[in-house]
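Q: Entry one of two.
A:
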Amino acid sequence: MKEIDFLNDLLPLKHKLYCLAQRITLDSLEAEDVVEDTLVRVWERRKTLTEVDNLEVYCLTICRNLALDRAERKDAQHATIDANFDAPADTTALPDAQLEADERLVWVRRSFETLPEKQRTALQLRDIEGHSYQEVATAMDISESDVKVTLHRARQALKDKLSHLRSHL
């Protein structure tokens, strides 16, 4: 791998790192600190990273580990998910339909936040950011089959919660 350039190689990863840290810590300020720490650590190690195959996965791994450490220390539980789940506003929707859609979105966010950290992280990396199973496994330091099982359980849990919501509407 070539020598790392901060502006071209690391800075473009900032948003992905933030989203991952946010999903783990459930705290936007903690997530910002985690991203900063991640970028600093990678930058300080830039000369030794010539054997790293995928810089993004390497950064995501460091970010995840730092976020887990902070989440354990702070026991963060109640922040909102950022705008990744926000659908574009439908300006033609009736006010009642828009209110119902907004309520569903809030419910999905809350349901997502109740998932265990491992499931939130796997969903973030695979379904939201679109990483391969192998990249998710590397970033989370688990096997590829464990990623698939974790994703299945997370999706099933969300599906169950959403069907419960529909039955109450």
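Q: Entry two of two.
A:
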Amino acid sequence: MASLEVARTRSERRRGLLGRDDVTGALLIERCRCVHTIGMSFDIEVLFLDRQRRVVDVVRMPPGRIGRPRLSARSVIEARAGASERWGLAVGDTLDVRLDA
């Protein structure tokens, strides 16, 4: 289990983890198929999720990169690099995300 922030507004979705020195837990960005790390200060890991929140890809991205879109993705989780290994997640796993109202 990990703490999960949710980027709820358009501005929060566009900003993602930009401007942060670190992250504990992760950030869920819905309606997202592609991310970049331009302006980031640390490596991140991006978990691409389909409609059922199944992991369709996991990518480690250093700062200053533009990722390619994953057309089957409907949302992403951004976290510090190595998060999926710490959490025991891999492509094909389905996440149980519980959001507070």
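A: Comment on entry two: Residues 4-87 form a domain with the Jelly Rolls fold (CATH 2.60.120.1140). The longest strand covers residues 55-61.
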